[in-house]
UniProtKB/TrEMBL annotation:
The lineage of its organism: Bacteria, Bacillati, Actinomycetota, Actinomycetes, Micrococcales. It comes from Arthrobacter psychrochitiniphilus. Pfam families: MTS, RLMG_N. Keywords: Methyltransferase, Transferase. GO terms for molecular function: S-adenosylmethionine-dependent methyltransferase activity. This is SAM-dependent methyltransferase. CDD domains: AdoMet_MTases. Residues 199-368 form the Methyltransferase small domain. GO terms for biological process: methylation. Residues 7-175 form the RlmG N-terminal domain.
Length: 384
């Protein structure tokens, strides 16, 4: 059986001419793993970091595999895999799972689209080496421009054999075997105390910014007391390591905060940050794509430090998608506070999507705005 990658969609993720649902890394991983997949028993294969289902669905189709265990950090990748699996009649060949021991127990073959973050690499490698079969074979790969020698050093701590393969179309495969059962797993989430904010920040490997406080977020935190002072509920959209959720909850004990992110690591990190600061009663954490599960007109205050990278591709689409989501979920008179890189100039887009938009503060790098949802429920399209 052959698998036609051309049928894969990115949906519901952003689709555009320069964005693709599979890359040469998928081909390389699958080619290198071909013989191992041919002889794999059901339930012995784990797939990591699959973008839109190429690895999972090609394995299932070409090698007639079932019982695949799949973990994807982003919820939109999970939805895209489900969508593509449904269309190709493979909805029952895999189970989506969180990153943890169960994903790897007794796994014989692991297919892995390598992450760019060394922390994520270490967190995953430690789990594989600890829980997978001693004879596990890991077929990994990545885009050459995102691969560094430091990655090999990290991987060598967890595998006795780390063998790079021949590069093809700007991707390179890596074959890992001989899990070092004696390797000391780094402990995740990592935890750091920030004296200036009086906050513990926790982060799993795949979390934006790790345990650091993002510079844009740091700029925004000074304005927490001004954000819709009468609000009883706030949403931290794209909560990452939970800095904004924790700062809001700590500064305003009457406020209930919902931190939400499409990244599983971010959700786990914000949960850990809330616990570490004894704020778990005030902070709820939800994994969701762009507020999809939130009722329209339900929020008085949303705080956002939007991403401007989609994977490795610079693309402003994601910020605009989050502005539109915010406009739907804000109640009339509700406020969106947004911090962004000064050169991005989102003010017009915010006014158009949400309502009257005012620049609250600006420094050499960042702009902080507040947009107020028009009482009529339609954006006013003005800015001041
Ligand atoms: C620039 S980071 C900000 C993280 C955190 N709020 C902070 O201040 O450090 C943007 C966050 O948005 C999240 N994100 C990206 N796309 C999203 C989506 N469609 N729905 C929800 N969150 C998303 C990312 O996972 C990331 O954690």
């Amino acid at each position: 059986m052959v698998f036609d990658f051309g049928h894969l969609r990115r949906f519901p993720d952003i689709e555009a001419e320069n964005l693709f649902a599979h890359d040469a890394t998928d081909d390389l991983i699958l080619q290198q793993a071909y013989a191992a997949l041919e002889t794999s028993a059901p339930g012995s294969v784990t797939v990591l970091g699959d973008r839109y289902g190429a690895l999972t669905l090609a394995s299932a189709t070409v090698h007639d595999l079932s019982g695949l265990r799949v973990s994807q950090d982003g919820i939109s990748g999970e939805y895209a895999l489900a969508f593509n699996a449904d269309r190709s009649g493979h909805a029952d060949v895999y189970t989506s799972m969180a990153l943890g021991p169960e994903l790897f127990t007794e796994a014989e073959v692991v297919l892995w689209q390598l992450p760019r973050s060394l922390d994520e690499l270490a967190e995953v490698a430690a789990l594989i080496s600890t829980y997978a079969s001693p004879t596990v074979q890991v077929f990994a790969g990545g885009r050459i421009k995102h691969m560094t020698l430091a990655m090999n050093t990290v991987l060598a701590e967890y595998f006795s054999s780390v063998v790079p393969g021949r590069a093809w179309r700007k991707s390179r495969p890596l074959h890992l075997s001989g899990p070092r059962k004696e390797a000391t797993a780094l402990s995740f989430p990592k935890k750091e105390f920030h004296a200036e904010q009086g906050l513990w920040i926790c982060a799993h490997g795949a979390t934006f910014g790790g345990t650091k406080i993002d510079v844009g977020t740091r700029f925004l935190l000074d304005y927490v007391p001004q954000m819709r002072p009468d609000a009883s509920l706030a949403i931290d959209l794209g909560c990452g390591n939970g800095t904004i959720s924790a700062a809001l909850a700590k500064a305003r004990p009457e406020l209930k905060v919902i931190g939400t992110d499409q990244s599983a690591a971010a959700v786990a990190s914000t949960t850990a940050t809330a616990l570490a600061n004894a704020l778990a009663d005030q902070i709820e954490v939800v994994r969701d794509d762009a507020l999809a599960g939130f009722a329209s007109g339900s929020a008085e205050l949303i705080v956002l430090n939007p991403p401007f990278h989609v994977g490795a591709t610079v693309h402003a689409g994601i910020a605009h998608k989050l502005f539109a989501a915010t406009a739907r979920v804000l109640a009339p008179g509700g406020e969106l506070w947004c911090v962004y890189n000064r050169h991005l100039d989102y003010k017009g887009a915010l006014a158009k999507a949400v309502g009257t938009t005012r620049v609250v503060a600006r420094n050499s790098k960042f702009t902080l705005t507040v947009s107020t949802k028009a009482a009529s429920g339609t954006a006013e399209g003005s800015s001041s």
